[in-house]
Amino acid sequence: MDILSWLFNGWLSGGIFSWIFWIPIAIILVIISALVAFIKWIIEKAKTANENRVKLKESKSSILNNNQNKENKKKSKKIAVVLAIIFSIFSWIYTYKKNYKKFWISLSLTIFFIALGLILFIYYNVELNFPYFINLGLWIWAIVDNSVKNDDFYLNYPNA
């Protein structure tokens, strides 16, 4: 077999006009270009991380002052009640430092009872309504809990 017949033979014989010849080359080129792009991305991230590290060292005192100001921002009872009406148990994230136990207990109960209802429905074909009532009860609990608290709790948060 001479070289010209090998180069210009049909699509399946392995010549340069064959897809069998070009597909692996294309895949290799795509992999190489992806690796080059990934290496460039890593280098850029390292540069920006180094620049950010320098900026952080220079402005450490201003960052600390900003964090103290953020912690002392006042909360509002109206916003807490509206969040409870719209987002149920997730309204306790608004005052997380004081209500984290309520949030995690109610979230774990929600996940447990929804999973229990799904498992019973999928495997035993039993449709239960109590997980929905439990979640409704948790929703009402969040609304009542946020609306019963004094305004001083929200104004002095997190020191209340």
Explain the overall architecture.
The chain has two domains: 3-69; 74-155. The mean pLDDT is 79. The protein has seven helices and no strands. It is flat and about 85 Å long. With 160 residues, it is mainly alpha-helical.
Q: What are its keywords?
A:
flat, 160 residues, 2 domains, single chain, mainly alpha
Distance between the termini: 91 Å
* Structural Rg: 31 Å
Question: Number of helical segments?
Answer: 7
* Biggest sheet layout: none
User: What's the order of the H and E elements?
Assistant: HHHHHHH
The dominant shape is flat
The mean pLDDT is 79
Low-confidence stretches: none
Q: Compute the number of strand runs.
A: 0
| Beta-strand content estimate | under 5%
Describe the structure concisely for a colleague:
With 160 residues, the chain is mostly helical. It has seven helices and no strands.
Could you outline the blueprint of secondary structure elements for this entry?
Blueprint: H1 3-7, H2 19-58, H3 60-71, H4 77-87, H5 96-124, H6 130-148, H7 151-155
Helix pairs in contact: 4-6, 5-6
